[in-house]
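Predicting holo structure, xanthosine-5'-monophosphate bound.
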Amino acid sequence: RLLIIDFGSQVTQLIARRLRELNIYCEIHPYNRVDDAFLASFAPQAVILSGGPDSVTRPGSPRAPEALWSFGVPVLGICYGQQTMMQQLGGLVESGHGTAEFGRAFVTPGADKLSILDGWFTDGNEQVWMSHGDHVSRIAPGFQVYGTSPNAPFAITADVSRNFYAVQFHPEVHHTPKGAKLYENFVRLAGFTGDWTMAGYREQAIAQIRAQVGDKQVICGLSGGVDSSVAAILIHEAIGDQLTCVFVDHGLLRKDEAAQVVAMFRDNYNIKLIAADESDLFLGELEGISDPEVKRKTIGRLFIDVFQKYANQIEGAEFLAQGTLYPDVIESVSFSGGPSVTIKSHHNVGGLPEKMGLKLVEPLRELFKDEVRALGRELGLPQSFIGRHPFPGPGLAIRCPGEITREKLEILRNADAVYIDQIRKHGLYDDIWQAFAAILPMRTVGVMGDGRTYDYALALRAVTSVDGMTADYYPYTHEFLGETATRIINEVKGVNRVFYDCTSKPPGTIELE
Ligand code: XMP
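Done. Tokens:
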């Protein structure tokens, strides 16, 4: 396995992504946790030093563990990682002097060839992405230059005899088009064969779950989303009936969703499932509440109470299964400090295990989202389920601005179903990151047939995004929007007007509340 030492770059996760794409198993660990002893116990086959926001010229700035230099495995330093490598091995790094470089740059090859640059410079210079204030002004003894850019005379250097490689730019970002090739060359040189596959992961995870759980009982909260579903199916494969799933219907799910979840897990996969219809409780407590944060907190609190109630019925339960993913696990190295503003209180069950005195089973902790989807396919989950758009924990509550009523929820469910059906029929579902309808807290006047109507207005939302952090509205054609509005108004009783939300994020958020 490969170790990535994180010095706090915004794009460290992308290094792991590039390596996983090559079927290489790697882990990211923050520099302040990686000392000589850690290195020895982790026993990496190769090490990558990430970029970072600090300056190696600042006293007390982060360093790689000294033992790394005599550990005997290939090391690749990127940006800050390159600079600390030079500094620690006897070179010199300096700040400023007008040599900062941000953005696109072109690297010219040196006189000699370098194995990690196989496939580079086929068309002369190579485009790379730079982001640095400091620069190396003297390379360490034993290093040679293999590439230069106008502002980085030491853009690519290496000490081939010791297998140390150092680049000033970021090969992990898209704007370094041959970056993936560089990583591929590096891992081949380190002896990786790229044999880390989902089939292998499945076997390994099953063995681990069995070893961890023994003959004890495990509870898993199912939300109907991809992560908890894949976790449940994997754990069921490992321990069968020692797993009980709890699915809480809070009355804020989409049309037929509860029935579909029950059918899939109970009938298809034969998993022990408690399906709890608690919609009266949730909708009762939400009555009269229109403040978005109060809604979210009410749902979060009730969810924990209800889950605990059902979990207590499972005798001898010692473990709680969660679909935690790798991005939630990576400890971020943040230099910015300071509390960030809460935009929305997310509904999650993070506090559950301590409250209930349960140990955690998290079989997806090492995976990225698209790897979870691949594992889901490996476990036989249908593509229509794996490719579903994200759905928030508080469900339709946050798509019903203002007060929530059963009547509004019913209208919203029907309208959302028509909207999603339209998107599927037009083959747009997979191009869109997330799409949904929201019912607005207003009625408007319309005319249908010869009569006056006074019904609800609906907002349609559809966004493109990579991770939900930023998003742009989806550019439907006018024909599509017109056809969809007509269908919704004709087919859904209670709606007489449809708007399309063209707000990006920021300044908007994806959900309306
Ligand atoms: P926003 O509205 O914050 O949404 O732009 C970003 C993504 O997060 C989802 N979302 C949630 N997911 N619990 C969740 O599990 C929540 O409380 C929650 N609130 C928003 C939202 O659907 C979008 O995909």
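Residues 334-339 have pLDDT under 50 and may be disordered.
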